[in-house]
Amino acid sequence: MKDDRPVSTRLTIPAIAILLALGPGCVTNQQAETPHANYSTVQASVDRDTDKARQRNAKGLEHLLVGDLDDAEQQFRSALQADVQYGPAHNNLGKILYLKQDYYQAAWEFEYARELMPANAAPHNNLGLVHEQTGELDRAVEHFRQAISLDADNIEYRANLARTLVRRGDRTDELRTLRDQIIAEDTRNEWITWAKSLNIDD
């Protein structure tokens, strides 16, 4: 199938996903139960230190914003060693693993973040990106729709859904509505151009 995605935005995790991981929704992870009994990507401390986890996560974001993936990964893993239930660090570690094309482990981290932060749309969006990248388009669509249900105003999530529906070969009212929303609301010129180029009107 022809790949109709805008070149400059192909399967990149939007920056908003990281910003959301720092928002008020992250406090829910402090009451959450550990979703996986056999967590293997870090050796977590028995005593949780959420403040240290938050500090390490912030350091990781500093490295990530300048493109230093290895140091960012180290900081996010350190955050999870301090508190394995700190959801934002799982989401951000997942982003690093995604960028390194380790999609299996990225999905693991995003799933962990999703369970710890059920009201946060970012992990669903990121899981959608993983499944889209690995060709599991139906699962990608499900996660993008879930992200939109949690954050309906986010045009990036709606654009990701539109792109995946196009890749899946859909020609539905849902896709036409998403196309019109991208044209009207998106500020990224390449996405607007892409949406205008879609030939999906019957």
What does this structure look like?
- The chain is mostly helical.
- The protein has two domains: 22-118, Tetratricopeptide repeat domain (Serine Threonine Protein Phosphatase 5, Tetratricopeptide repeat, Alpha Horseshoe); 120-202, Tetratricopeptide repeat domain (Serine Threonine Protein Phosphatase 5, Tetratricopeptide repeat), CATH 1.25.40.
- Helix content is 62%, strand content 0%.
- The protein is built from ten helices and no strands.
- It has helices at residues 15-20, 50-65, 69-82, 87-99, 103-116, 122-133, 137-150, 155-168, 173-185, 189-197.
- The longest helix is centred in the N-terminal third of the chain and has 16 residues, at 50-65.
- The model is unreliable at 1-38 (pLDDT under 50).
Secondary-structure topology with pairs:
Layout: H1 15-20, H2 50-65, H3 69-82, H4 87-99, H5 103-116, H6 122-133, H7 137-150, H8 155-168, H9 173-185, H10 189-197
Helix pairs in contact: 2-3, 2-4, 3-4, 4-5, 4-6, 5-6, 6-7, 6-8, 7-8, 8-9, 9-10
